[in-house]
TrEMBL record:
Gene3D superfamilies: SIR2/SIRT2 'Small Domain, TPP-binding domain. NAD-dependent protein deacylase. Catalyzes the NAD-dependent hydrolysis of acyl groups from lysine residues. It comes from the Eukaryota. Binds 1 zinc ion per subunit. This is NAD-dependent protein deacylase. PANTHER family: NAD-DEPENDENT PROTEIN DEACYLASE SIRTUIN-5, MITOCHONDRIAL-RELATED. It comes from Owenia fusiformis. Residues 51-334 form the Deacetylase sirtuin-type domain.
């Protein structure tokens, strides 16, 4: 659990133990407090340790947002950790720190039916929980900023579709979405929910459970658990199905990259939220923005690959900062 959250948790627990009231009232309060703390734990267990927000940082970011008319916003895994989705790289709480499991590589997925069997068995088990995740305050704020005309285009590196669920429309899911399935053999594309039914129909007697969840809707299962699991093929051509996401080792489609570059061209500033920008597919847009001398703002708990390019750098939890920003404020030069 993150350090700050842990402090609050311990404080609440110690307070709870020192209250002297009737046992009935105490039971009521205890039950509710535990429920609140469990919810709090669920929403912050994958958020890395963070420092309290500084007033000066809020002012700097407010000035940046007020000065922008057509913002290009790029988001990463850091904004979804508060929805209970772990990221890959955060110290202590990211997948790489907690587990030896690593995301599937594109070439391995395409070449090996054993890897596809393991992938889909795990994904099938993870889907009910994964698909029930909800947008948090940051996703909702960005949808509001779009409605206010502040955001011209939103690009996310996340595959969880939480921006879509929050109502953002001017949106590119750079690495795709786990909510769509595509066929490698034809142009068949259909919702992930449909695949869940297809898998259930082919595996009527198969079931497994796991406690660990990963950033892309994955869970850990043993080889014994996976044995016997049947993977459905495309019902149009019999080809191999794949989630419509960019696996590690694969590239984002060229037309999608040029589309995003065009959107970047139309914008007057760039704001990065919750991304370390370690992956080149997102970082390249920051390099282009710097070449075009567009102002760059970054809000992220840890350091990023583009810190040296940023005009405004705020090291904090995104929801803490955005809640204090008024997107309707604007600076009028006279
Ligand atoms: Zn097909």
């Amino acid at each position: 659990m993150a350090g700050c959250t842990k402090a609050i948790y311990n404080y609440n627990i110690s307070k709870m133990r020192t209250i002297t009231i009737s046992s009935k009232a105490q039971n009521f309060i205890t039950t509710n407090l535990i429920s609140i703390l469990q919810k709090q734990h669920h929403s912050t267990q994958f958020v890395p340790e963070f420092q309290p927000i500084q007033t000066e940082d809020v002012q700097k970011l407010q000035y940046f947002v007020s000065d922008a008319k057509q913002m290009f916003v790029m988001t990463g895994a850091g904004i979804s950790t508060e929805s209970g989705i772990p990221d890959y790289r955060s110290e202590g709480v990211g997948l790489y720190a907690r587990s030896t499991n690593r995301p599937v590589q594109y070439q391995d997925y395409v070449k090996s039916s054993t890897i596809r069997q393991r992938y889909w068995a795990r994904n099938y088990v993870a889907w009910p929980r994964w698909s029930s995740t909800q947008p948090n305050q940051t996703h909702k704020t960005l949808a509001d900023w779009e409605n206010e005309g502040k955001i011209h285009w939103l690009v996310t590196q996340n595959v969880d579709s939480l921006h879509f669920k929050a109502g953002s429309k001017n949106l590119t899911e750079l690495h795709g979405s786990t909510y769509r399935i595509m066929c490698l053999g034809c142009d068949n594309m259909f919702p992930r929910t449909q695949l869940q039914d297809m898998i259930a129909a082919e595996n009527p007697n198969w079931s497994a459970a796991s406690a660990e969840h990963a950033p892309d809707g994955d869970v850990a299962l043993s080889p014994e658990q996976v044995a016997g699991f049947k993977v459905p093929n495309c019902n149009k051509c019999g080809g191999t199905l794949k989630p419509d996401i960019t696996f590690f080792g694969d590239n984002v489609a060229r037309d999608k990259v040029s589309f995003v570059f065009n959107k970047l061209e139309e914008c007057d500033s760039v704001l990065v939220l919750g991304s370390s920008l370690q992956v080149y597919s997102g970082y390249r847009f920051l390099m282009r923005a710097a070449e075009q001398r567009k102002p760059i703002g970054i809000v992220n708990i840890g350091s990023t690959r583009a810190d040296h390019l940023a005009n405004v750098m705020v090291k904090a939890k995104c929801s803490d900062v955005l809640a204090r920003i008024d997107c309707t404020d604007s600076i009028h030069w006279t």
